[in-house]
Amino acid sequence: MEKDKQKATVKPETKLLSPKDATSCEATARMLEKARRDGVEIAIDRAAAMKPCPIGAESACCKHCAMGPCRLNARDPYSKVGVCGATIDTIQARNFARMVAAGAAAHTDHGMAMLDLFREVVNGRIPDYTIKDPIKLREVAESIGIAVNDRSVEEIARDLYKELERTYTQVEGEIPFARRVPEKTLETWRRLGIVPRGAMREIMELMHRTHIGVDQHYENITKQSSRTALSDGWGGSMVSTEISDILYGTPSPVLAEVNMGVLKENQVNIIIHGHEPNLFESMLESVNAPTLIEAAKQAGAEGINLVGMCCSGSEMMSRHGIPHAGNFSSTEAVIVTGAVDAMGVDIQCIKQGLAKVAQCYGTHLFTTNPRCHIEGAQHIEFDEHHPKVCTDEIVIRAISRFKNRNLPVEIPRIVNPGVHGFSYEYINYMLGGTFRGSYTPLNDNIINGRIRGVAGVVGCTNPRVKQDWVHVELVKELIKNDVLVLQTGCSQIALAKAGLCTPEAACLAGPGLQEVCEAVGMPPVLGMGSCVDNSRILIAAAEMVRVGGLGDSIADLPAAGAAPEWMSEKAISIGHYFVASGIYTVFGVTFPVVEQTKFHKLLFGGLEAQGLGKWGYTPDPYKMAKMMIAHIDKKRKALGIDKARERILLDMADRREIAAL
After folding, report:
1. Higher-confidence residue: 206 or 9?
2. Taking the CB of the first residue and of the last residue of the chain, which one, N or C, has fewer CB atoms within 10 A?
3. Residue 5 pLDDT grade (very low, low, confident, very high; cuts 50, 70, 90)
4. How far apart are CA 624 and CA 655, in angstroms?
5. CATH classification of the domain holding 151
6. Percentage of the chain with pLDDT > 70?
7. 452 domain residue, yes or no
8. Which pairs from 81-86 meet CB under 8 Å and 24+ separation?
9. Which pLDDT score, from 0 to 100, does residue 650 have?
10. If residue 159 lies in a helix (H) or strand (E), which one and from where to where?
11. Residue 649 is assigned to a structural domain of this protein
12. pLDDT, tens digit, for every residue of 471-522?
């Protein structure tokens, strides 16, 4: 192919943002400048050329049948209806519901793939993967009522598979992990009729209801949206996280490097990008195979450098300390370095534009999953029964590309160290120790006012806003006000690049949170893994309720969530399962709703009145922080802990008296 045909060229008429206005990531800014010099277009510049549809952004249009598309006036939303008579509230509820269904389907399919792998491992049909954390296996099994005493790992694992399969296929009853939900929260779900039965049923029913001429009441549609989203958070996503831990090990804190400086000019650089850990785990073995290392050296390389990106990268960083090159908005920019010899991708958050950018720089782009092929990319099917057939081939092709590099390499020498891998289990251990692991110290420090509350700051990056900036500024404001922050996904990488994932970052926290961080030796920002690992936050919230002192329901907790730079339907599903679980959740960038409509009032207040959480929206990180802190303070006041207790230094006699109680 001729070189000019390979170019993903920047259109000359496009008014481009300066790199400093487009991203707060210095490495990405440098590569954006280089891409422009090279005449290569990446997502940041495509966003400048493609203005969003204002009607679609507010969800004021419907294209679900051939009588439309119907466009309503967002400025005067009740002035007309669709051809079928659908009101603005019905149209918005349907559009929102379809985003929830698509996002839940993505996580559910991911979780089911992990469960399929687990079944094959348990039945001895896949020798390349094993159960690496039998303790986690027993804990998960016991949490959903499976007997574990005096039983073998294999027996427990087979029963666990059968029980978790119900998460997807069950048509009546309650999903297995409903047992983990605090009783009062579960009572609310039962009263509202939103306890998930099985993920397949909930997604199917929600899609059916949004078809032309079926469900036409925004409240009823939203009810099923809640049920479907909960089947994601407490179902598909939670299954994926738990099975990944059982098979590959439960994360515990590990020092890992983030940013494009993790690439090595004198080594074969291989990036794995996507969401399923199976490919990455196999690749970890392939890059350490002596024969392939020797082949790399024969090609002139000093070795093979395996690097992660996006969510599978976050998972491997948290579990194994594998270096991480950047989040979603940097996935094309990293190829512009010219140093990437191969990028292997599986599912979710894979830009189609990667193929053209990879062609421009001679990088091998490999799709590996039957669910995700890309025109212009090479496909090497990944089969869990024979995983190294795929991963060894990717390494061999990467070595060949290294040997034949013919373009200059320009790597931004920026590396940001951080501590990652704060699983629910490790937080439990970190706070209480081996023999007295407990969330009680966390609750106690919230009650006494050292920690004001907890915030989950998660989600994507979006080229419609300055990359990473909203995440970083929001979290700085939160920790400054003594709010402990839990992180997952691309947000975690944004914070790591800003240096907020180290214990030393506690100096930026308020005096109470700083005191706790220094006592424990932890950062004020706890990285917990990938998108599906938001389920770790749900489990932590449930444990805070169980330990006591902070109410009887997740909705009682002084906690809030945010996705400051969201961009995907998965984010809407995640946000809604947090709202349905009882958490106030604020989104940035944009929100698919017309303000002051009945549907808007339901999401932003009506659900809370039902005993659930509620939505919030602002693109401003400082306003977002104020909204979240105000909600946390409201919950503290309702619990009667709005005034911090006097801090008393206990002597040994005091401690003996407490111990005797």
Report:
1. 206
2. C
3. very low
4. 41
5. 1.20.1270.30
6. 94
7. yes
8. 84/212, 84/213, 86/62, 86/216
9. 45
10. helix 153-169
11. no
12. 999 999 999 999 999 999 999 999 999 999 999 999 999 999 999 999 999 9
d(CA 335, CA 261): 13
Last residue of a domain, one of 248, 273, 293: 248
Task: For 276-330, write each residue's pLDDT tens digit.
Answer: 999 999 999 999 999 999 999 999 999 999 999 999 999 999 999 999 999 999 9
Nearest CA to 35 among 323, 465, 356?
356
Q: Is 284 part of any domain?
A: yes
Same domain, 204 and 91: yes
Q: 453 and 577, same structural domain? A: yes
Strand partners, 61: 71
| Apex 43 CA angle, 42 and 45, nearest 5 | 75
Give the DSSP letter string of 454-512.
EEEE-----TTS-BTHHHHHHHHHHHHTTEEEEE-HHHHHHHHHTT-SSGGGGGGS-HH
Q: Examine the pLDDT at 4 and tell me if it is beyond 50.
A: no
Contact 242, 140 (CB under 8 A): yes
Report DSSP letters for 186-241, one per residue: HHHHHHHT---S-HHHHHHHHHHHTSTTS---HHHHHHHHHHHHHHIIIIIHHHHH
Pairing of strands 453-457, 559-563: parallel
Residues 300 and 378 occupy one common structural domain = yes
Of 187, 217, 248, which closes a domain?
Answer: 248
Give burial (CB, 10 Å; 0-12/13-18/19+) of 149: exposed
Residues 224 and 269 in one domain: no
d(CA 610, CA 382): 46
DSSP 567: -
Distances (CA, A) of 287 to 69, 271, 532: 51, 11, 26
Closest to 453 (Cα-Cα) out of 376, 591, 559: 559
Question: Is 16 inside a domain boundary?
Answer: no
User: In angstroms, rounded to a whole number, what is the distance separating the alpha carbons of residues 520 and 513?
Assistant: 11
End-to-end CA distance of the chain: 79
Statement to judge: residues 472 and 608 lie in one domain: yes
The overall average pLDDT reported for the chain is 94
Domain at 266, CATH number: 3.40.50.2030
Residues 306 and 177 grouped into a single domain: no
DSSP label at residue 138: H
pLDDT at 2: 38
Q: Domain range spanning residue 228?
A: 76-248
Closest to 593 measured CA to CA, from 95, 42, 128, 19: 95
Count of domains observed in the chain: 3
Residues 205 and 298 in one domain: no
Exposure of 267 by Cβ count < 10 A (0-12 exposed, 13-18 middle, 19+ buried)?
middle
CA distance 164 to 183: 21
Residues 219, 225: Cα–Cα separation, whole Å = 10
CB burial readout 312-331, b (16+ within 10 A) else e = bbbbbbbbbbbbbbbbbbbb
Model pLDDT for residues 182-201, shown as the tens digit of each residue: 999 999 999 999 999 999 99
Q: Same structural domain for residues 172 and 198?
A: yes
Question: Phi then psi for 418, rounded to 5 degrees?
Answer: -160, 165
DSSP H or E run through 70:
strand 70-71
CB 589 within 8 A of CB 495: no
